[in-house]
Amino acid sequence: MDLRFTELYPEGWGITFLVEKGLHSTKSPYQRIDVLETKSHGRLLVIDGAVMLTERDEFAYHEMLTHVALFSHPCPEKVLVIGGGDGGAVREIARHSCVKEIALVDIDADVIEVSRRFFPQVASGFNDERVKVLTEDGVEFVKRAEPGSYHVIVVDSTDPVGPAVGLFEKPFFEACFRALTEDGIFVAQSGSPYFQLELVGKSHRTAREVFPQAATYTAQTPSYGGLWSFVVGSKLHDPKRPIRDDETVLKQLKYYNPRVHEAAFALPNYILKATGQIEG
Ligand code: SAM
Questions:
Q1: Does one domain contain both 70 and 40?
Q2: What is the distance between the alpha carbons of residues 184 and 152, in angstroms, rounded to a whole number?
Q3: Whose C-alpha lies nearest to ligand 1, atom 4?
Q4: Are 120 and 193 members of one domain?
Q5: What is the count of structural domains for the chain?
Q6: How far is the CA of 89 from the centre of ligand 1 (A)?
Q7: pTM
Q8: Closest ligand 1 atom to the C-alpha of 115?
Q9: Are 85 and 106 in contact (CB under 8 A)?
Q10: Are 228 and 61 in contact (CB under 8 A)?
Q11: Looking at the annotation, which residues are catalytic?
Q12: Domain of 68, in residue numbers
């Protein structure tokens, strides 16, 4: 008999993995965390029943979450990650030698510990000496942050349920705006265009209200049910165009390249409509 794990999306369809065995299961003060060995995708990290990453395709999500903003900034020395306790975003950011400090603020120390233990290749960025890890609520952390402290803020959160709700609200976007330098860039995962289209639209509109420049882009992330969206807000630089050309970083990447960066902002009509960029 095959063992299966299915993440069922709210509309009644989902994604299924054949499971070889369960490796770990905990209930932290914030969420349930499971690690499964799958037949096709290596290890799978699940939080509260939702797929967080698989070893096979996490590169697509983590590269596109981070490098679009980082390559749009001429000198991103100070970077803040909110959420991202698996370490994948930090690993990508640490590839850039111009980055001098990376602060990661995840509310749940257990996610960090589980990732270090079961996903050493994803968590490898935590070993970089530029990385400082804090375990607290990202909403509160950004509210208190010194204005103008970060060149780039990356929000790698769970879906807007439980502790992550505030990370999708306008006051948090505004607090990030204040915490960014005068030429700072904000980027956040903004949900699935297939089963969270309202969230995609809301995130885009909120970013437009807060930042002088805002745009939505997408990437193929099969373990999240197909296409995934990200919203970027920028105070000065055009986030749609890479302005640095760092071959040392580029040659390490499996998904991101400068042409993919620009192409990712070409959106299908249904997303343009949901984000209020065309009428219909
Ligand atoms: N890519 C992922 C996905 O599929 O949604 C996100 C992965 S990452 C593991 C999400 C992290 O956000 C979790 O570790 C969770 O603890 C963290 N998180 C949720 N709410 C948070 C908050 N308010 N402040 C900081 N971290 C938060």
A1: no
A2: 6
A3: 52
A4: yes
A5: 2
A6: 11
A7: 0.98
A8: 9
A9: yes
A10: yes
A11: 156
A12: 58-274
